[in-house]
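Example record

The entry below shows one chain as it appears in the dataset: sequence first, then structure tokens.
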Amino acid sequence: MAVCRYVVEVYLDGVLKERNITEQDRQLLIDYLQCICFGFVIGWLESGMKEGIRERFARIYELKHGDLERMISAVSRCPLKNRNLYRNKTEGFCLPSSKS
């Protein structure tokens, strides 16, 4: 898990280099991406490592291209408002506008 976290932190810090986001949002993005990375690696290990992990990550990147950018853009549209993201709260979430 620590390796996944390191890889995600290095990647995300490169992506966020010129962006202004809160540390809490940064940590949330790291947690999210770390879990995806870890689950992906565990699935690959459990399958007997039959498929090349690089090819699998490359394909996922192609399929999900743009998702991270949309999440980062949402940070500016939906400010944090001083809430603790690690508590179970249902009020105050910023949902996408239904306007087109």
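Notes for this example: The radius of gyration is 16 Å. Residues 78 and 99 are 16 Å apart (CA to CA).
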